[in-house]
Design brief:
198 residues, 10 helices, Cytidyltransferase-like domain-containing protein, 6-stranded parallel sheet, pyridine nucleotide biosynthesis, ATP binding, alpha/beta, transferase
Length: 198
């Protein structure tokens, strides 16, 4: 059985060793493959309007993660799951559709690879939001993944509460990534200016 980590991110831009790159390096040590999934159309309209194009963010991911390991794959699975969701819709109707994690997991399951287990990787805040039902189709996501979560955290002040929540979900893992800092994509936006014309 192969184990593949799915790591979704806005990638606007991808952050360095104190952020996305550091997380992916930690995941490479645990999994057979790590799939980097730049979000295609953000679920939240306000965030969707601020994102640079999917193609630009996908290219930034290739540049940020290309040399980490042959186990790292930058995937367009979010785009493919969106295409599947809008099949048969008009262009105007399709423009209103965003897909969430449930649709993404169903896309991966449709690949019909019974020798692969997928693990969804996310930060502590996102994990707690999922448990609180704040995600699009939270219960469906939890059911589809059946505990296969890797929750990474910075040096959290409330680590005991987070450990308890992770332990209550059989199969979930808590991953401390030593290199994580308080960096965010919005803070690093000016640091990663990639030229897509090359």
């Amino acid at each position: 059985m192969r184990h593949i980590a799915l790591y979704g991110l806005s990638a606007d831009p991808p952050t360095g060793h104190g952020g996305h790159v550091g997380i992916v390096q930690a995941l490479v040590d645990l999994f057979d493959e790590v799939h980097i999934l730049p979000v295609y159309r953000h679920t939240y309209q306000d965030k969707r309007q601020r994102l640079v194009s999917f193609e630009h963010r996908w290219n930034m991911c290739h540049r940020a993660f290309a040399d980490l390991s042959p186990k790292v794959v930058v995937s367009d699975a979010e785009y493919q799951s969106w295409r599947h969701a809008v099949a048969g819709l008009s262009e105007e109707e399709a423009a209103q559709v965003s897909v969430g994690t449930a649709a993404l997991m169903e896309y991966y399951q449709s690949l019909d690879n019974s020798s692969v287990e997928y693990y969804f990787c996310l930060g502590a805040d996102a994990f707690l939001d999922l448990l609180a039902g704040k995600w699009k189709e939270s219960q469906r996501v939890l059911g589809l993944l059946q505990g296969r979560f890797v929750v990474f955290h910075r040096h959290s002040a409330d680590i005991a509460m987070l450990q308890e929540k992770v332990q209550q979900m059989p199969g979930a893992q808590l991953l401390e990534v030593e290199s994580l800092t308080n960096v965010s994509s919005s803070q690093e936006h000016k640091l990663y200016q990639f030229d897509d014309t090359r």
